[in-house]
Amino acid sequence: MKGDLEGNWQKGELQPFGNLEVSPAAGVLNYGQGVFEGMKAYKTADDRVLMFRPEENALRLVESAERMSMPAPDIETFLNAVKQTVLANKRWIPPAGKGSLYIRPLLIGTGPILGLAPAPEYTFLIYVSPVGTYFKGGLSPIDLKVETFFHRAAPGGTGAAKTISNYAPVLKTQLAAKGKGYSDVIYLDAVENKYVEEVSSCNIFIVKDKVISTPELAGTILPGITRKSIIQLARSRGYEVNERPVSVDELLDADDVFCTGTAVVLNPVGSITHGTRRVQYNNGAVGAVSQELYEALTSLQMGKSKDNFDWVVELD
Ligand code: PMP
């Protein structure tokens, strides 16, 4: 689908997966005007196709686009395009319990622009791919490393937007950590280098004495849809959940730590390394709260438990 800076969009159509042709002067190539979303579709045992809170992704795309001076398709257009794309690819959705279809809506500045300014034209497209679990080993605790030199986002920057330019700086730290056997990196705040922000592609929670805490949305972390859902889900199950600054000391002193995101779903953390200190949680086994919330979330997403929140959307 193509649109202009004023937000007038032409009608889109389904196309086979293939290369794009863009100007070398495209806004996305030169000035990073690109935002995206990550969503999943699940197949149930009786062949229904389910999605989780897709309107939240539509809303977040609008907010991310606004931060990057880009027009975005409206909520209804976004949802219709996602639905059409998923149903056209139904045969690629793995059977129930075997994975999901990852959906990548991408909005980029494709119009040419030489001087620093928003591109005159935009392209909104969606591509999909079947996926299994994000981290190797499925629901098994991961080892994370706290990054103390590089930062993911600065106050007043673009950390709260799902923009492509937030991911390039992460590649270097993530690669280095993976090279040392860690699954991913935990970023700290750029001002005091003391408060936990998030992981390269997921939000983080700690549990201490049955109280759950997660870094507050202060403009430098992505407002994860899984994060928001886990907060609601945990509260509905009687947990106290706080959104507040979480220090790295508290992280290392927690009883249970887990990450949340569309790709990772909910993944327990087995150990965290900060400098020369390494802390293991639950002797490297899955923590009780992680396990409980993982089951509550996934049974909802896969249509196995009653959806009291009205979060699950069936495509037909
Ligand atoms: N933080 C970052 C940086 C991410 O890329 C993601 C994945 N979208 C998340 C958090 C989790 O967000 P969500 O639960 O909406 O997938």
Automatic annotation (TrEMBL):
It holds the Pfam family Aminotran_4. It is an enzyme of class 2 (transferase). GO terms for biological process: amino acid biosynthetic process; branched-chain amino acid biosynthetic process. Its EC number is 2.6.1.42. The keyword Amino-acid biosynthesis applies. One of its GO terms (molecular function) is branched-chain-amino-acid transaminase activity. It catalyses: L-valine + 2-oxoglutarate = 3-methyl-2-oxobutanoate + L-glutamate; L-leucine + 2-oxoglutarate = 4-methyl-2-oxopentanoate + L-glutamate; L-isoleucine + 2-oxoglutarate = (S)-3-methyl-2-oxopentanoate + L-glutamate. Its cofactor is pyridoxal 5'-phosphate. CDD domains: BCAT_beta_family. The modification N6-(pyridoxal phosphate)lysine is found at residue 162. The keyword Hydrolase does not apply. Gene3D superfamilies: 3.30.470.10, D-amino Acid Aminotransferase, subunit A, domain 2. Keywords: Amino-acid biosynthesis, Aminotransferase, Branched-chain amino acid biosynthesis, Pyridoxal phosphate, Transferase. Belongs to the class-IV pyridoxal-phosphate-dependent aminotransferase family. NCBIfam families: ilvE_II (TIGR01123), PRK13357.1 (NF009897). This is Branched-chain-amino-acid aminotransferase. It comes from Ceratodon purpureus (Fire moss).
